[in-house]
Structures are given as structure tokens and as C-alpha cells.
Specification:
Helix content is 42%, strand content 15%. It has 255 residues and is α/β, with parallel strands linked by helices. Bound molecules: 3-methyl-2-oxobutanoic acid. 3-methyl-2-oxobutanoic acid binds next to loops.
Length: 255
């Protein structure tokens, strides 16, 4: 679907027609513009930029100012794509009012079409406050990397009955609070699939199987240029790292 920028209504229509929604992360102008050229439906300026761009061990150190800079670059690269800004750790944890102020920055300063934040039951009032400010919110449940320390590491969620119930409760809380879409990360495919019958908003996933309304993938993983680690579910569509090393080696040899 290249061309015009899609809206939330288009995503609901795609879901109703059984058309998968495609979503990729991008953090800079080139990947954003190439993703637009390829016809991607949505871009996420994920706080995964902490690892993919800055080389941190996780997403926790990422700041609002870093996110805004990358969102602006992506916006310029993909003016016709629905772009989602990812709220970093600390930007919505201190209260509803801080959450709204920071969400507003994503829209006003960086031209984002929506924001995403992690959590369910515990952040329901934040989602409600941001949605009430007229900003499109996407919830993120299951494995929530910003709280990986509390979860005991980057571990799959929803594998026990108790954990699956928590994922379901979080998903319901996200929808009730006013989120327009749900991202579910690293849960069993059956659980992710069942969420489609539990909530009425589109369910997108990462590491959550194919029985959902769409997928998001980290650009550095599927393009093969982020080498620190690769989750098992990732399919590499290119080996950009190899191409770059080869090209730079040839340049060095030419000089
Ligand atoms: O920051 C990110 O890239 C994410 C992924 C899990 C999609 O939230």
C-alpha cells in the first residue's frame, strides 16, 4: 500500500478484510525513506534505538530528546507513512500529566501520528490521559523491555496460566483506557491469536506468531545489520552488515 498515508480507520478496515498490517522500526532518514518506497504501512521509531543506534545494553537509558531527534529524521524520510513514536522509560512513569506533556512533544515537535507505551493495568490512567488529549495511543503488552529487570530478563511471557491471565488483563485494560491498537511481544502464538477475540482493537505482534492482524520487526534484525544478538523468530531478508564490510574493505584497498 504505497502512496497515501494510512490512518487508524484504514488499519481497522485492513483488519476487517483480513489484510495484514506491516510495521517496521526505523530511526533515521534513509531507512525511513526506503521503507516508504517499499510500501510499508507503519513505522515505529522504537526505543530499541538505544541498542540498534547507540549500542546500549537495553532501552532504559534512552531519553525523550534522543527519541524526538530520531522521530524528526524519520518523519522527514517518510512523510507518507503512519509513524509511531515510542515513549522511552521515565517519560510516562512519573504521572499522567508528565505522560501527556511528553506525548504532546512527539506530536507537536516531531509530527508523529501516534505514540506507543509499554504496560497494561498499571499504565491505564496514562493511556486514558494521553488518549483524552486527542493523541492516538498504541499499547504494548507481554514482554515489555523497559521493565525487563522486573520481569527477570528479556523473557517470553504468557507461558503459564497465571502469566497468560496477566497478559489478557493488560490487553483489556489497554483497550478500555482508549488505546487504538495493541502490540503484543514474545507470547505464545495461541495466546496472541486469542487476544483477537478478547479485544476489539487490531492486535499486532513481535515474536507472537502469525495469527494476528500484523507484525512489527526491528529493521536492524531483518536487514541484518544489527549484530549484537538476533531473536530466534527473526527472518533475515538481507545481510547488510556483510555488504557494508565488503564495500568498506574494497574502498580501503582502493586507497
Ligand atoms: O522499541 C521497539 O523497537 C519495540 C519493539 C518491540 C517493536 O518496541
Amino acid at each position: 500500500m504505497a502512496g497515501k498515508k494510512l490512518t487508524i480507520s484504514d488499519f481497522y478496515e485492513m483488519r476487517d478484510q483480513g489484510k495484514k498490517i506491516t510495521w517496521i522500526t526505523a530511526y533515521d532518514y534513509p531507512i525511513a525513506s526506503l521503507s516508504q518506497e517499499a510500501g510499508i504501512d507503519m513505522i515505529l521509531v522504537g526505543d530499541s534505538l538505544g541498542m540498534v543506534v547507540y549500542g546500549y545494553d537495553g532501552t532504559v537509558p534512552v531519553t525523550m530528546d534522543e527519541c524526538i531527534i530520531h522521530c524528526k529524521a524519520v518523519r522527514r524520510g517518510a512523510p507518507n507513512v503512519f509513524v509511531v513514536g515510542d515513549m522511552p522509560f521515565g517519560s510516562y512513569h512519573t504521572g499522567d500529566s508528565d505522560a501527556v506533556s511528553n506525548a504532546v512533544r512527539f506530536v507537536k515537535e516531531a509530527g508523529m501520528d501516534a505514540i506507543k507505551l509499554e504496560g497494561g493495568v498499571k499504565v491505564a490512567s496514562r493511556i486514558r490521559a494521553i488518549a483524552d488529549a486527542g493523541i492516538v495511543v498504541i499499547g504494548h503488552v507481554g514482554l515489555t523491555p523497559q521493565s525487563s529487570a522486573a520481569l527477570g530478563g528479556f523473557k517470553a511471557q504468557g507461558r503459564t496460566a497465571e502469566s497468560a491471565e496477566a497478559v489478557i488483563a493488560d490487553s483489556i485494560a489497554v483497550e478500555k483506557a482508549g488505546a487504538k491498537m495493541l502490540l503484543v511481544e514474545a507470547v505464545p502464538p495461541e495466546l496472541a491469536g486469542s487476544l483477537r477475540n478478547i479485544v476489539s482493537i487490531p492486535v499486532l505482534g513481535i515474536g507472537a506468531g502469525a495469527d494476528i492482524d500484523g507484525q512489527v520487526m526491528i529493521c536492524g534484525d531483518i536487514l541484518g545489520y544489527f549484530q549484537a544478538f538476533t531473536p530466534k523468530f527473526v527472518k533475515k531478508y538481507a545481510n547488510v552488515a556483510q555488504v557494508i564490510v565488503k564495500a568498506i574493505t574494497e574502498y580501503i584497498n582502493d586507497v
